[in-house]
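From the shared-data thread, chain only:
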Amino acid sequence: MKMAIASSMLRLAAGIVAAILVAVLISAPKQVGAIPCSVVIPKISPCRGYIDKSKRIPSQSCCDGVKDINDRSKTRQDRVEACKCIKQALSLMSKYDPNRIPLIPGKCRFSFSLPVIKSDTDCNK
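Structure, as tokens:
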């Protein structure tokens, strides 16, 4: 009898855990394509020294971060959102040369391009 009760309790507990897991998975927020700024900003932050002219060339971590963001930006909307994140991060810098941003891929020996990003850049274009 004790064994049957224990078995029933175990099945009940397993059912409750399964129901909770399903509820959590259903209610979890879904990432909709675009890369969040919480990913973009740390990836590009090593580029600060290059774009503020305190470094002559981008660091390897800058190159790696820029390549990773480019690789993750599969759609136009991904690129728009990444641009907005970069624009937000740049707004916190006291000075930088926006004309150095398009130079990063070449300095890192990548074949893709980056636009000049200034405070008035329209990331939707």
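The chain has six helices and no strands.
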